[in-house]
Amino acid sequence: MQTHTVRVLRSSEASSREQQLAWKIAEVATDSVEVEAEVVDMIVNRVIDNAAVAAASLTRRPVSAARAQAVDHPYAPGATVFGLAPERRSSPEWAAWANGVAVRELDYHDTFLAAEYSHPGDNIPPVVAVAQHAAGRLGLSGREVVRAIATGYEIQIDLARAISLHAHKIDHVAHLGPSVAAALGTLLALPTETVFHAIGQALHTTTATRQSRKGEISSWKAFAPAFAGKLAIEAVDRAIRGENSPSPIYEGEDGVIAWLLDGPEAGYEVSLPGPGEPKRAILDSFTKEHSAEYQAQAWIDLAIRLGRQHPELRDPSNVASVLLRTSNHTHVVIGSGANDPQKYSPEASRETLDHSVPYIFAVALQDGGWDHVTSYAPQRAARPDTVALWRKVATAEDAEWTRRYHSLDPKEQAFGGSVEITLADGSRIVDEIAVADAHPLGARPFRRPDYVRKFRTLAADALEPDEIERFLATAERLPDLTAEELGGLTITAREGYLDAVPLPRGLF
C-alpha cells in the first residue's frame, strides 16, 4: 500500500491534478491488476448476500416506492430490477436506485468499521446495473464485474480507514459516491482523467448530514446509499461526455476537508494500493448474521447466550439494571449516549429500533434469537415485560473498548464490549464479547455455505424454489458469465407475491 498525505491547499499553491486524492483514487481504478482467487470468492459471497436481503425486503414500503420509480423509467437495453422479470428493464441509474434500496432496507448486508463505517456491498447494485446496460455494446463479462466490485470495496474501505465523516455529522455515503465512480471506471475501462472527474462530481453531490440517522430515523436511511450510487452513475455519464468536476474536491480551500471535515489546517494519511498491487480490502469487511446495526451484532450473540445460560434474566422483575460498557461509537450512535428518547420508545420506527442497542439486547435476551421481521414488530416492541427490561438497559463508554474499536490490527479490533447485569437480589452477572460470532475472528465465521443458507432462508417466501437455485448457480459462476448472462444477476418474485404492495404513484 502507498500512503498519501492529503491536506488543504491554498489557492495560491501550485498543485497538479496528479497530486490530488481524487486522481490517486482514479489511478487505482484504472490499474488493470487481476483479482486474486480469495477475493473473487468473497465477491461471489457478497453478491449472494445482497440478493438475500433484497429478497426479504421486496414487499416493504420503501422498496416498493423505489421499484415504482424504476418501473416508470423503462429503457433498452437497461438493467434489471429486483423482484421483476429479467426482461423488464429500467434505465441503469434507476435500476441501481431500486436495487440499492432493496439491499439496504433491512440493514442486513456487509459492513466495514474504522475511522468511518460503511456498507461496502452498496457498491454492487450500481456496478451490476451499468454492466447489464453496457454489456452488449462493450462486450463486458463477469470478469469485468468482479474487477469493478473489487475496486469499489477497496476505495470505500480505504477511505473509511483514514477519514472520519461521522465526527463532523456527515453521512457515511460521502465515501460511497467516489467508490462507485471508481468502480465504474474499472468496469468501463475509462481513462484516468475521466474517472478523476467522475469521482469529484460524485463526492461533491453525495455529502449530506447525519440527521438521517438521528432522532426518528426515517426510510431515507435505506435510500441514502442508493441515492449515492445513482448520483455516481450520473457523474460517470457526464464525465464520459467530457464534463469536468470541482477541483481540488478534497483539498481545495473551499473543499470537503476545509469546510465539512477537519478544517483548513487538517491533514490525512490515506493508504491506497500501489501500481500492480491487488485490491484485497473486501477481505477485511464482514457481513451480518442478524438484521440490525453492525455494532449490535455481537450484543445480540451475547444476549442470546446469556438468556440461555440464565433464563431468569428474561423476567424484568429479576433484573435491577443492565450496563453495556462499549466503544464511544456504539454508545453515542446506538446506545443511551445518543440522548435519543426514541431509542426507548415502543412507538419508535423499525429504523430507530435497529439503532437502539438497549432494545436489541432486551429482545435477544428474552427471545433467544433474532428475526428480521418479528423482532421489530410493533406488538413485540410494545410488550410490557420487554419495555420494562429495555428501560433498565444503558450503555457507557469504556476507553479500552473505544481503543480496540479504532485499532488497525484486525486481530485486536473489537465491536462489542462487556456487560454487567445487577440482579434484584444484589448479585451480578458479568460477561463480554469482542466480535460477533459471524465475524472472521468470531465463534462461527461466515463461509460460502452460510451465505447460501442466508439466501435460501430470506428468499424462501419471495422466490420459487427453481428461482432460488437458478440465482445461486448464476452467482457462483460470476467470474465466467458472458455478456448475455449478466442479466441473470437478479431475482424474480414468485407469481402474485408483489401484488400485496401496489406500486405507489408519483410524478412520473
Automatic annotation (TrEMBL):
* Segments forming domain MmgE/PrpD N-terminal: 19-266
Q: What is this protein called?
A: MmgE/PrpD family protein
PANTHER family with a match to the protein in the record? 2-METHYLCITRATE DEHYDRATASE (PTHR16943:SF8), 2-METHYLCITRATE DEHYDRATASE-RELATED (PTHR16943)
Top-rank taxon: Bacteria
UniProt family annotation: Belongs to the PrpD family.
| Short name of one Pfam family | MmgE_PrpD_C
Using the record's annotation, list all stretches that form the MmgE/PrpD C-terminal domain. Answer: 290-477
